[in-house]
Amino acid sequence: MTTPSAATPSTPAAAPIAGPGPASDPAGAPRGRGSLGPVGLVLAGGLSVQFGAALAVSLMPRAGALGVVTLRLAVAAVVLLLICRPRLRGHSRADWGTVVVFGVAMAGMNGLFYQAVDRIPLGPAVTLEVLGPLALSVFASRRAVNLVWAALALAGVFLLGGGGFDGLDPAGVAFALGAGAMWAAYIVFSARTGRRFPQADGLALAMAVGAVLFLPLGIAESGGKLLDPMTLALGAGVALLSSVLPYTLELLALRRLPAPTFAILMSLEPAIAAAAGFLILDQALSATQSAAIALVIAASMGAVRTQVGRRRVKALPDMP
Are the CB atoms for 214 and 107 separated by under 8 Å? Predict the structure, then answer.
């Protein structure tokens, strides 16, 4: 989703993946006040990944889009493997299949996204990419109210994009939409990986799969540039901010949040990206963009309140 050990709860290997029912602790008691814990993990991960994306954009002139992805995945894989030291034995064929697909989804999501930001601005790229999780929230949800939150978030996303993307490079738009599809797959298989492997072991293995898949592409594009000390240092920063920290936090959050609710929370990414652009790149927000961010935040808060309220109702004892 481990790197920040203080932010990583000790989840046992058999920790239940979030589903429609209420989460519970090892003793079987339902979680009440801690229901917002996974939401905090998601928000922290979103902040990290967007500031990491801003750093990655500044690194592209040095290493190229594919080179940046290669550094990001390779450094993240090394860090996670050293920290987690996952077992290679004792896993079923289904476990390994889940890890491989998870790794392919991560590699595809990163590769397509950086191809997009190499052609279109960061804000519109994130806005288009988030349509993947929004679509997942609509298709996977079993509650009509979640469709309302998804529609509200979608309205905010399009408003944040200026109401249209006609002036953008079509290839960049296609890459961003493809990254969104991979993002939806990432959410699904991150949850499955968290269910099958303890802590972040599955994430470490999947990151290694993605790094191996992308390494030839990065070498072909950037070659020896990847070994430049400054490039390596910046790449390590991108890996920590955009991969190690957020993916660890998200994997942990998906153990306690249903995929539809998590997907709607991902609609906060364009808002976080806009805030990062304002703070780092000195990009001012217009009144329309501010209204769009308010819509997205309202949708995410509504989705969270719906899920928390549902858990509290199910946690109440049956009345005689």
Answer: yes
Q: What are the C-alpha distances in Å from 127 to residues 104, 135, 186, 250, 318?
A: 22, 13, 17, 19, 44
Residues whose CB falls within 8 Å of the CB of residue 224, separated by 6 or more in sequence, listed in order: none
Q: Rounded to a whole number, what is the largest CA-CA distance in the chain? A: 72
**Strand partners for 30:** 24
Tokens 């942990």 belong to residue: 252
At 44-62, the pLDDT tens digits run 888 887 778 778 877 888 8
> Quick one: which of 102, 108, 67 has its CA closest to 225?
67
Q: Give the model confidence (pLDDT) of 255-297 as tens digits.
A: 777 766 776 677 677 777 767 666 665 666 667 767 776 777 7
Residue 144 · residue 303 · CB < 8 Å? no
Residue with tokens 């109210």: 145
Q: Beta-carbon neighbour count of residue 247 at 10 Å?
A: 27
Q: b or e along 80-97 (b: 16 or more beta carbons within 10 Å of the residue's beta carbon)? A: bbebbebeeeebeeebee
